[in-house]
Design a protein that fits this description.
This protein is mainly α and 179 residues long. Helices cover 80% and strands 0% of the residues. It contains nine helices and no strands. The chain is elongated, with a radius of gyration of 26 Å.
């Protein structure tokens, strides 16, 4: 049986083009893994704007990859992965620490800086520690639970009086009566 003279070239061409296809699939793996982690942190709900931007960037990189432009997709991949990691962290912060931030804002409105500066500073410090713990343990936010709870208790401890929504505001109100 006689083979066509172009058959070996065809086989070689298929093999050469098949090699980049294997690496093409790997180019966006890091970005997709970061996307999955952000989705697990409920980023579409708690960080919707960042999620939408990162999704748009990932779709553009996937289009580049489909067009065969592996270099352009690879170049965007690291930025997209970073965007999804930032989105994940923002979602975790919003999910676990939003009430603490709201209480701190309320305390600032009632001039806690003047009337309860140590309590306000302590609450801010504990919020920063909780945010740092969340950043370290973003894959398992339950490991940051102690720091999150400490921040919540400092800013939002059950009120001294039913008319005061949190400990920080209660301390501020009590200090106001002394002045």
């Amino acid at each position: 049986m006689q083979h066509s003279p172009w058959l070996p070239l065809l086989v070689l061409g298929i093999l050469v083009t098949a090699i980049p296809l294997a690496t093409m699939a790997d180019v966006l793996d890091g970005a997709r893994a970061a996307r999955d982690a952000a989705r697990t942190a409920e980023a579409p709900r708690y960080a919707a704007d960042r999620w939408a931007r990162a999704e748009k960037d990932l779709a553009a990189a996937e289009r580049k990859l489909e067009q065969g432009n592996v270099a352009a997709a690879a170049k965007r991949s690291a930025n997209i992965e970073g965007a999804f990691r930032d989105t994940q962290l923002e979602a975790l912060r919003n999910q676990y620490l939003a009430t603490v931030r709201l209480q701190l804002m309320s305390a600032e409105k009632v001039r806690a800086e003047r009337y309860a500066p140590r309590t306000l500073a302590s609450a801010r410090q504990k919020l920063e520690a909780a945010e740092a713990d969340l950043a370290r343990h973003r894959a398992a936010p339950e490991q940051a639970a102690t720091a999150i709870e400490a921040a919540r208790l400092e800013a939002c401890m059950p009120p001294v009086s039913p008319s005061w929504p949190c400990r920080l505001i209660a301390v501020t109100a009590a200090a106001r009566t002394c002045y």
